[in-house]
Design goal:
The chain has 303 residues and is an alpha/beta fold. It folds into two domains: 242 residues, Rossmann fold (3-Layer(aba) Sandwich), CATH 3.40.50.410; 32 residues, no CATH class. Helices cover 39% and strands 18% of the residues. Strand 8 and strand 9 form a beta hairpin. Helix 1 packs across helix 4, helix 4 packs antiparallel against helix 5 and helix 6 runs parallel beside helix 7. The relative contact order is 0.15.
């Protein structure tokens, strides 16, 4: 477990927590970090016939007998666009405040995003942000200056600070919009629980394919609470379940539906993973109870 400054019932210093998360994750990593998804953005590119020879690296030619041109800094750095699902289901489990040891899905996603942004800031990479629920709440294009970084942090803090309201969403609709907004090749990092698309899987993956079609690389963090949402681990007593997005209620003994629920959810998760594999989308399960290493390690290593 990463040791973090514990903050309960007050808005945290998001930048400080992000730094602590990154530092805690890097402890014990023997390989050099920051060579994951940015590894493709090398300092040279193969010379194409007809291009100007002004930027040919002749020293490299002498070593390799091949023509390469130097990339400008803007070509070399990674561009990443973070997308956060801010629908009501992401505010599960419902919290009355902020406790670093007991995060809900939206708090976990915001902190994970802030930590990844901290990594990009160290690399001087460009970053952008989209937040959606039942509307496209926020959009900022990719930039790599400190003023922009703090603007994005402020927006993430606003998400942490807002009261949960009944907000449904259709992820696929906003992914299409975001795809149209991002014109240059980027790494797209999506945090969502995918609950709202159970009847719209085809539309969801068509939207993700839209991102891929634009030559973006897509990294999908599937955010969930394994204990309750996947394992359905509840005490077997009369329990009232409330749909956090629609407000509908169901009174039932959990054991009455646990077997059927477990099968349905397992099948659903497998379908998501298989579809991601089919469309070459990087899928990472993100159980909010396991901390941030399962989020940062794939990002740092590209695996």
């Amino acid at each position: 477990m990463i040791e973090l400054q514990k903050t309960t019932y007050q808005l945290p210093n998001l930048e400080l927590l992000a730094k602590q998360i990154v530092e805690g994750t890097l402890v014990g990593l023997h390989k050099s970090p920051f060579h994951g998804y940015s590894a493709e953005f090398l300092e040279h590119k193969i010379y194409a016939p007809g291009e100007s020879t002004k930027f040919v690296d002749w020293k490299l030619y002498g070593k390799t007998d091949k023509l390469y041109t130097k990339k400008f800094e803007d070509e070399t750095n990674l561009r990443a666009h973070f997308i956060i699902d801010n629908s009501s289901s992401m505010h599960y489990p419902v919290k009355s405040g902020f406790d670093i040891d007991r995060l809900n899905k939206i708090q976990f996603s915001v902190l994970a995003t802030a930590a990844l942004m901290e990594i990009l800031k160290k690399q001087r990479d460009a970053m952008g942000l989209s937040i959606y629920s039942n509307k496209y709440e926020f959009y900022a294009k990719e930039k790599n200056n400190l003023k922009h970084y703090h603007l994005l942090l402020h927006q993430l803090e606003q998400v942490l600070n807002e009261a949960n309201k009944q907000k449904t969403t259709e992820t696929y609709r906003y992914l299409h919009e975001i795809a149209e907004n991002i014109h240059r090749r980027s790494l797209i990092v999506l945090f969502t629980d995918l609950w709202e698309v159970r009847d719209n899987n085809d539309e969801l993956f068509e939207a993700l394919r839209h991102l891929k079609y634009n030559k973006h690389q897509v990294l999908l963090f599937h955010v969930f609470d394994n204990q309750t949402e996947f394992a359905f681990d509840f005490e077997n007593k009369a329990t009232k379940f409330v749909d956090i997005e629609h407000g509908t209620q169901l009174n039932i003994y959990p054991e009455q539906i646990k077997t059927a629920y477990n099968k349905a959810v397992k099948d659903y998760f497998n379908q998501i993973k298989e579809s991601c594999y089919k469309y070459q989308i990087d899928y990472v399960p993100a159980d909010i109870n396991l901390g941030f290493k399962p989020i940062l390690i794939p990002f740092l290593t590209g695996k």
